[in-house]
Amino acid sequence: MTARIDTTVILGLGLIGGSLARALKARGFSARVIGHGHREASLARGVELGVIDDYTMDLNAALEGADVVVVATPTLVAAGMLERILPLYAGREEAMPVITDVASVKGNLQRAAQGAWGGRMPPRLVLGHPIAGSERSGVEASRADLFRNHRVILTPDADNEPAAVQLVRDMWLATGAEVVDMSVASHDAVLAATSHLPHMLAYALVDALAQSPASDDIFRFAAGGFRDFTRIASSDPVMWRDIAIANREAVLATIDQFSGHLAALRKAVDTQDAEGMLQTFSRAKAARDEFAAMLEARQRN
Amino acid sequence: MTARIDTTVILGLGLIGGSLARALKARGFSARVIGHGHREASLARGVELGVIDDYTMDLNAALEGADVVVVATPTLVAAGMLERILPLYAGREEAMPVITDVASVKGNLQRAAQGAWGGRMPPRLVLGHPIAGSERSGVEASRADLFRNHRVILTPDADNEPAAVQLVRDMWLATGAEVVDMSVASHDAVLAATSHLPHMLAYALVDALAQSPASDDIFRFAAGGFRDFTRIASSDPVMWRDIAIANREAVLATIDQFSGHLAALRKAVDTQDAEGMLQTFSRAKAARDEFAAMLEARQRN
After folding, report:
1. If both were cysteines, with which of A71, A126, A174, B197 could A101 make a disulfide (CB 3.0 to 4.6 Å apart)?
2. CA distance A217 to chain B (A)
C-alpha cells in the first residue's frame, strides 16, 4: 500500500493529536508522522507508544518537509501558532504545506489567519473540527479509532486551493470519520448551541448549588439524573475558559436565546400556566427523543 | 417469620407503588398487599405478576382493615386523594390507618392535609418521598430492589404520632432504603435544586434549540455530552407539569438563583474576564467531581 502523503506533522500531541497520528499510521495515510510540542516527555512517550515516528521541539524543523501540518494545540494556543507559522511563508505561498487544525472554535482562527495573511485566508490553510473527545486526555489516552463514525466539520474558504481542501478531507475520511462542510459562522453557532451553552449552564448550575447555604444537603440528595446532567461540569476549566473567550459572540447569543426561553418557562410556572408548561415540556421531549434515536441509529452503523 | 403488619394498601399501582408492594412482600413486612386504582387492567396485571395479593377499585373497601395506606398516585392526584380520605376519619382519628405517600413535592400535600384536618397535620399521616425512579414506568417495570441503597426522605410533623412515624420508617427500611428526616420546606428546596431546576433547564434548553432556525444542524452535530445533558428532557411532561405546579415557590426561587449565576457568568464571558471564568469553572468542577465520587462510593456499598 502506498501512503497518500509522505509526512504529517502534529503540533501538540494530546488526545486528539495523538489519536489522529495513530489513525493516519494505522490506515497508511501518511508514511511518517512527526510530533512537535514543548513538553519533551510527552513527545518521547509518543515515540515509545508508536503514536509518532519521531519528534522535534523546533517548529521550523517540524515544518520542513511536512506535507500536512495539523495544529492540535489548545484553542487559544492554536491562534498564536497560526500567527507564528503563516508569516514564515509570506511571499512564497507555494512552499507552504497544507495546514489544518482541530480546535473547537473556528472564527478566532479565521481572524488570526486573515490578520497574518493580509486580510485573506491562506490558500492552503483549511480549518476543521473533529467532534470527538473523551473524558481522558493526553497522548496516553490516544486511540486510533477515536474518530470512527464521528463527525468532522471542515470550514473551507473561497480562497482555499481545492486540492488542499481535498487533502484534509481525505485525511479525515482515512480515520473513519464522516466529513461535513459548514461556514465558519455556522460552525461556531452550532457548536455554541450544542456544546458551549450546555457547558456554561452546567458550570453555572453546579457553582450556584455549591455556593448555596444548603449545598451539603443538596449534593447529599442528588441522584443519577443530576449526575448525568452535570457530567460536563467536570470538564477541563482551562479549555472551557479558552473556548468561551474564542467564541465570545456566539456564546453570548446562545446564552441570551436560552435565557429568553427560561424566562418564558419561569412565567408559566409563576402563573401556573399548566397548558403552556405541558406544551413546552412535550415539544422538548419530542425533540430530545428524536435526537436520541438518531444518535443511537448512527452509533449502530 | 411474622409479618410486621397485616395489610398494606397501595393507592396507585405504578412503578413506585408496584415496586414498594413487591419489596414489602419479598421482605415479609406486610402479610398482605392490596392494590387500588382506577385502571382495572393494571391492577389485575399486578395480581397476575404477584405484585399484589388482591385489588379493589372501591376506595372505602380499600381503606377498610388497612394498617398502612400508601398514596402512590401522581403528585397532584395525591393531594386530591388526601382531601377525599381524611374527612372519612373526622371525629374518629383512632380509626385512621397510618397513611404515607411517595410524591415528589411535600408542601402541597401538607397544605392539602392541613386544609382537610382543621389546620393541623393528622397524627397518622406521615409524608415521604423515595428518591428512586427509572426511565420505565408502570407496574410491569416494578422491581423489589428499586429502593435498595436509595434515600427515602420523611418529613415528620410535630403533630404526628411517634408510632406512626416509626412504622413508616420501618416500612422503608424493610425495602433496603436509607431513611432521612427533613422538614417539608427543606425537602422541597433541596429537591427543587437537585431535580426540579435541572429538569426546567433541560426542557428550556432543548425547546430553545428545537425552535431555532438552525435546529436541524444543531441536533445533527450534537454528540454524547449533549445526550447526557438533555436526558432528563425526555421525562414525562405531565409529571413535570404537576411538579412545577405543586412546588411553584421553590422552583421559582431556584430558577432565580440560577439565573443570577448565569447572568454573572454571561458578564464574565462578555468582558473576557479570564480569571473570573476560570474560578467559576474550577469551583464547579471541584464540587461536581466530589459529588460524583460520593455517589460512586455509595453505589459500591
Report:
1. A71
2. 7
Contacts of A184 in chain B (CB under 8 A): none
Rounded-to-integer distance, Cα B175 and Cα A239, Å: 45
For residue A252, give the nearest of B190, B260, B270 by CB distance: B270
- Summarize pLDDT for B200-253 with one digit per residue, the tens: 999 999 999 999 988 888 898 888 889 999 999 999 999 999 999 999 999 999
Task: In whole angstroms, give the CA distance from residue B232 to residue B238.
Answer: 14
Q: In the structure grid, which three cell numbers stand for residue A298, read together? A: 448512527
Query: What cell numbers appear for B244 in the block?
Result: 412545577
> Which three-class secondary structure state does DSSP give residue B107?
helix
Contacts of A266 in chain B (CB under 8 A): 252, 255-256, 259
**Residue B202 gets which letter from DSSP?**
H
Quick one: pLDDT at residue A14?
A: 94
Q: What is the model's pLDDT at position B1?
A: 56
What ipTM, to 2 d.p.?
0.93
Which domains, from first to last, does chain A contain? Answer: 5-182 (3.40.50.720), 187-270 (1.10.3660.10)
Sign, Cα dihedral of B27, B28, B30, B35: positive
Residue A247 φ/ψ, nearest 5 degrees: -115, 35
Average pLDDT of B64-68?
A: 96
